[in-house]
Amino acid sequence: MIEVEHLHKSFQTRSGGLLRGQRRTVEAVRDVSFRIEAGEVVGYLGPNGAGKSTTIKMLTGLLVPTSGRVEVGGLVPWRDRRRHVSRLGAVFGQRTTLWWDLPVRDSLDLLRDVYRVPPARFRENLKAFTELLDLGPFLGTPARSLSLGQRMRADLAAALLHDPELLFLDEPTVGLDVVAKERIRAFVAHVNRERGVTVLLTTHDLTDVERLARRVMIIDHGALLYDGNLPELQARFGSARELVVDFEAPPADPRVPGLVLLSADGPRVTYAFTGAAARPITLVTARAPVRDVTVREPDIEATIRRIYEGNLLGTALS
Ligand SMILES: Nc1ncnc2c1ncn2[C@@H]1O[C@H](COP(=O)(O)OP(=O)(O)OP(=O)(O)O)[C@@H](O)[C@H]1O
Predict the structure, then answer these.
(1) In what residue span(s) does the ABC transporter domain sit (predicted)?
(2) Ligand 1 atom 24: residue of nearest CA
(3) What does the alpha-carbon distance between residue 258 and residue 263 come to, in Å, rounded to a whole number?
(4) Domain that residue 272 falls in
(5) Is the C or the N end of the chain the one with fewer CB within 10 Å?
């Protein structure tokens, strides 16, 4: 579906401040290559300024690469813009594609005309999306009066009315409460599953990724650092699992041979371990009477932070 080979994009900028006017080259994307198959949901992650938007803009045809190859469904995005755009949908969390002063329903009608959606198909899609996203209560409301969550739902419907094969989502849940976030995620999972829509998702909310994407690509300073699934990411870069043990009484010596002691606070002692939890639990319970044990998984957020920090320190990770 998407093929990217040795993609580069540089921008010429002029510096401000003391060096005002001096030309500078920013390499926003450096030698990025990947393939995305039809029907995949891929999380595209990276800290601010990493090169995510620049990549997406090249994939949508808004920007022409400095060098390298991009093909989406057999088309070169910036050369075949019109045909390309008819096959993709995009939702940008920070701005809307809806007409600000028009009722949502009128915006959707206009998009139907822009994309020449057959009337029967339009009716089917509008009905399905109205149900799935509960658009009914605000179809008559102008975009400017919608809450952020309502606006996102309307934007998602707008992006999918013309049955695109590919959906770009840029921060689709930013600023939403947990319930609204979950509703958006459920909808995206639905269109992927039921309609086979391929999704490329940029987000700073890792719950979006855990919920939706089996695969993640991590970019920093324009270069791809990781491309793979989440469990492998955890296995390769995650910190150890933690075993939190509540002993019946504070142990005189909390150390257990074979386990790394992280902290001891009265009867509660925390150890680090890797692999399965059975052996550490056996070791601990053999040591002293235990009231309770909990296994704490390393969180994906911490893992990704370590990858970003590793890159800042210049560590080769991939
Ligand atoms: N039109 C432009 N002119 C000059 N520099 C640019 C331009 N667009 C992007 N850049 C620079 O390219 C780099 C990558 O920016 P990009 O917007 O792709 O990052 P991002 O990963 O999308 O970040 P964010 O998460 O903050 O949106 C940054 O250093 C940015 O300042």
Answers:
(1) 2-246
(2) 48
(3) 15
(4) 240-297
(5) C
